[in-house]
Amino acid sequence: MAALESPQPGTTSAMRHAFGNVLSVLILVLIGVLAFSIRLFSVIKYESVIHEFDPYFNYRVTQFLSKNGIYEFWNWFDDRTWYPLGRVIGGTVYPGLTLTAGTIWWVLNSINIPLSVETVCVFTAPVFSAFASWATYLLTKEVKGSGAGLAAAALLAMVPSYISRSVAGSYDNEAVAIFALIYTFYLYIKTLNTGSLFYATLNAIAYFYMVCSWGGYTFIINLIPMHVLLCIVTGRYSPRLYIAYAPLVVLGTLLAALVPVVGFNAVLTSEHFASFLVFIIIHVVALVYYIKGILSPKMFKVAVTLVVSIGLVVCFLVVAILVALVASSPTGGWSGRSLSLLDPTYASKYIPIIASVSEHQPPTWPSYFMDINVLAFLVPAGIIACFSPLSDASSFVVLYIVMSVYFSGVMVRLMLVLAPAACIMSGIALSQAFDVFTGSIKYQLGGSSNSTDDAEDTSTSNAPKDDASASKTDKGEEIVKERSSKKGKKKEREPADKPSVKSKIKKKALVLPLEASIVALLLLIMLGAFYVIHCVWAAAEAYSAPSIVLTSQSRDGLHVFDDFRESYAWLSHNTDVDDKVASWWDYGYQTTAMANRTVIVDNNTWNNTHIATVGTAMSSPEKAAWEIFNSLDVKYVLVVFGGLIGYPSDDINKFLWMVRIGGGVFPHIKEADYLRDGQYRIDSEATPTMLNCLMYKLSYYRFVETDGKAYDRVRRTEIGKKNFKLTHFEEVFTSHHWMVRIYKLKPARNRIRGRSKKKTSSGSKSSKSAKKNPWV
Amino acid sequence: MRSTMAVNTKLISLLFLLATVSSVFSSSFSDSDSDSDLINELVSLRSNSESGVIHLDDHGISKFLTSASTPRPYSILVFFDATQLHSKNELRLQELRREFGIVSASFLANNNNNGSNRNKLFFCEIEFSQAQSSFQLFGVNALPHIRLVSPLISNLRDESGQMDQSDYSRLAESMAEFVEQRTKLTVGPIQRPPLLSKPQIGIIVALIVISTPFIIKRILKGETLIHDRRLWLSGAIFVYFFSVAGTMHNIIRKMPMFIQDRNDPNKLVFFYQGSGMQLGAEGFAVGFLYTVVGLLLAFVTNVLVRVKNLNAQRLIMLLALFVSFWAVKKVVYLDNWKTGYGIHPYWPSSWR
């Protein structure tokens, strides 16, 4: 923007362009620095540590990769998790992130920069967010010129939604995937604007990188066909469109099938069918246009009936095949997550394990203000700016924002996909507004003497699209352009450019009143300043917590709660290397990565029954739970308890989900048994089932010894049952702030007598218990 | 959530006594003839009813359940309905009743060739106003309620056959699972009536086939509604407004437009404090504020610049600026109020 605001009136246009370019590069470098450094709050406030849950798994995989090499990684069967099933890692992860970080580590090491794997993992996300903002610049530049590009890049560098997934230490797929997403879109638009096969090939490769990185690639492979279809339907078909689309589908699908986790899904699942359908349609349309080109108009009319009828037959056949394929698979070929996007009420009805995750909830309006802040105000202006004039590229970004804003309304995590679109739109809106306002001010301050000269000047600066004029086409120009596109990029520019400049000169200078423009400018700058303040605040306060180390600010200073690492370290030092540790799935990745112990379930929730078994054990009384755990060879049970220090996301608060998921598979666990009149409570009003379940006992065992009253700070009440003994478990470790408690299963020896007695006494009961507990 | 009905305890106990006595009494005199009579009667009732759900009243209940001897040769799945509660949407009575009919119809269709299984399970419904005493007999005081009376059950108050909420949460499919689990009969795949009947589909397909050439012709000429940019533009803006207003949240969570104030029932609450939830009107209000600023900005930069009259420009622009400023301020205020976040800048420490 700044580059365009200050064109020197005296210098030649070449000098101005050169100056503008240098300034643009400088600004882009600064934007990169900004994007990187705003994400360092977590390192400054805490330490250089991997965050949360999933990143620990990625970190562990990267460690494995850097130690054993790519082939070992590809064939890695992990027996440390999902005991006794294990998990094939190589075939079930999106390898993009791991390979990226592994490559960075390898390159750095081979040029003798000895960074640890952890350091590389921590800083991958900030580095890639700098890349992402540059990619945004390129994309927006293709759509509306470099001024809008710079504005969009600056906005993206600090958009809170993206920061939330890419702070230093947040080593997750999204960290690289958003860059890949934007870059793929950029290359698509670049191909669309130039009609160059070179960019089309690059586009397929970028798409491949996206497929490697994140399951969200289905967004691309549905959005681009939709845009192609839109272009065809609205009569915007061109050879450039064909070149942009056909190679992407063929090469992209072939490459996508190379990724083990996708494999034949790339041609078999419904998420991809739209692209094939559009692939066929575009060929039919291309044929029509070709025939139209070689025939006289009269002949064409005869031919069109022929071609249309043949094309229709082909289309109907393909549609029939697709429908048959879709109908033959149980869920219609759609995965649960995709289905819940189409029918938003689907997940909440049918799949508790998807509905239970907080990032799959639909957002409310404050989420938008939190995550894209003032961009929410600017987007409509950007949409309108994209419609005047509407080009292939700008129609694509409009489609992008519309689809992503709808999806973000269904699932709050998809706000991440919305963020780049919102930045692009707002960048376009801001840049247009600045152009108009500064143009008006400059025109009126320049005085009336050289008004004609200035009018011309403003008209060009009103249109920052000069650099990327390929994108700025009116309908009339397009025909000229299509012809010339064969001749190459450079020549094509001139005929496209000239009419637009001429038509602008003819118009009266478009100006607004001086003082109102100044006020508007000031208000816009204030809006921008507010955005910056909000983003810095969000990065520093809301999104920088690693959630593995917690802090709290109180009157007597800063408290640090490092209980998680304390207890994982305890596990790794005090237990046998082959011991199995059971916990709720949230802590699976961390346990394997930090304690190096085998877990029963982890955050990769691929086996619902297994998770339900652990949920059932946690919701059962001690004895039944012991039997389930014992049958799984579990030695230790880990629970997270926040009642002492007021840590709200502990296991007691997640417990109802354990009951629900457990009850979904083992019907003897009923949610109603744990609720008193529909309310979940743990005080003296709690149900006996609740007070006797394992989770309650393990969480509150000896809790009364802390303050004498057993007051739970999270639930804000005294607990219901204070003094009790454990019969089948023994406490082996409780962390400093009681956040993590580890129990050992008592050996079976103590129970032999009781068990043998029971066998003789109750024949009927044993059948009942066999039904209840599938593992015994 | 649950609505309770008035229960006359005295009457219940009396009826209960009567029922037990009569069932005990009749059981000693039961024989296979009367069993087959009952079945025949049920079958004829079923064949006369829509989708095979038999409408029973007090008389029918006593005839087929209380006075029939145990073990009865059939199970009965009873749907408890109350017309007076159909207006309460949160109970979903009508929806469940429809699904119940679908399960019944599917059961009949899938067991068409298997006469013995077909007559082992009957789907019945009783309506509160016509069968109040039966409701008491079953001890039902909350709806929705679906109960399976298996052949062995003599005490109708025994709630072991009750269908849990989880059993009809997935509508017909989970109801069928419940039935299959309890009765060991197969319901088979649920056969929902198609949204459109076959002739309708035929007509629609024919219409599409006939109209396609014309549509394609018009598309090639480029003069359809879809070539109108204003349509696309307003569509895009609408979707944006729809989403940022959190409407999906309101649909999925079935949020009302506003709620009554707990302390003062005459006052209505339009704005809910706490970021996890929002009310319908609140969402639309803020969605409107979100959208209006951008629209005004676009209006100023695209339309107003073309206006010739300088004073009109000035006036409209100042008005637009004022409205935008107010809207942003309002949203910031509402956001701070709703979420309780204290957003603050970070100044260099030497500036303080």
**How helix-rich are the residues of chain A, as a percent range?**
55-70%
- Largest interface by Cβ-Cβ < 8 Å: A-B, 73 and 73 residues
Q: How widely separated are the two ends of chain A?
A: 69 Å
Seen as an oligomer or otherwise, the chain set is: heterodimer
Q: H/E element string of chain B?
A: HHEHEHHEHEHHHHEEHH
Mean pLDDT of chain A: 82
Structural class of chain B: alpha/beta
Largest sheet of chain B: 4 strands, mixed
- With helices defined by DSSP (H or I, 4 residues minimum), what is the helix count of chain B? 12
Principal-axis shape of chain A: globular
Task: Summarize the structure in short.
Chain A: Belongs to the STT3 family. Chain A is mostly helical and 776 residues long. In chain A, the strands form four sheets. Chain A has a five-stranded mixed beta sheet with strand order 6-5-7-11-10, sandwiched between helices.
What report would you give on this structure?
- The complex is a heterodimer of chains A (776) and B (352).
- Chain A is mostly helical and 776 residues long.
- Chain A is 64% helix and 5% strand.
- In chain A, the strands form 4 sheets. Chain A has a 5-stranded mixed beta sheet, with helices on both faces. Chain A has a two-stranded antiparallel ribbon with strand order 1-2.
- In chain A, strand 10 and strand 11 (740-745) form a beta hairpin.
- In chain A, helix 10 (197-213) packs parallel to helix 12 (239-256), helix 11 (217-233) packs parallel to helix 14 and helix 24 (475-484) packs antiparallel against helix 25 (489-506).
- Chain A starts with a helix and ends with a helix.
- Chain B is α/β, with parallel strands linked by helices and 352 residues long.
- In chain B, 53% of the residues lie in helices and 8% in strands.
- Chain B contains 12 helices and 6 strands.
- Chain B has helices at 9-28, 32-48, 58-66, 93-110, 115-118, 132-138, 172-183, 198-221, 229-244, 247-253, 280-303, 310-339; strands at residues 53-56, 75-81, 121-127, 145-149, 259-260, 268-269.
- In chain B, the strands form 2 sheets. In chain B, strands 1-3-2-4 form a 4-stranded mixed beta sheet, sandwiched between helices. In chain B, strands 5-6 form a two-stranded antiparallel ribbon.
- In chain B, strand 5 and strand 6 (268-269) form a beta hairpin.
- Chain B is elongated, with a radius of gyration of 31 Å.
- The two termini of chain B are 55 Å apart.
- The chains are: A mainly alpha (776), B alpha/beta (352).
- At the A-B interface, helix 15, helix 17, helix 19, helix 20 and helix 21 of A face helix 8, helix 9, helix 10, helix 11 and helix 12 of B.
